[in-house]
Request: fold
Amino acid sequence: MEQLSIRLKIGNREYPMTIKKEEEELIRKVGKKINEQINSYKTKMNIDDPQDLLAMVAFDSYIKLSNQNKSPVGSNQVLEKLKEMNKSVDNYL
Reply:
């Protein structure tokens, strides 16, 4: 599996990532969707704080994933992944 180094811009920050080449399209689409959600919350709720915007996107994403997968095991896995992502964002900030 070939690895690829990219920089993904989310909000007003760039995040360096090393990914599998075959995952690049999906990761870029997810980044684009996150930015669209950030802009939507910024406009609709008049929120300017980047951390608040990311928290709202994370919360919204978790709710959508939970509704798709009602099993407690799946929900726990999603929650753990969100905690990891939140920790990464906190460390980066």
Notes: The chain has one domain: 3-92. The radius of gyration is 14 Å. The longest strand covers residues 3-10.
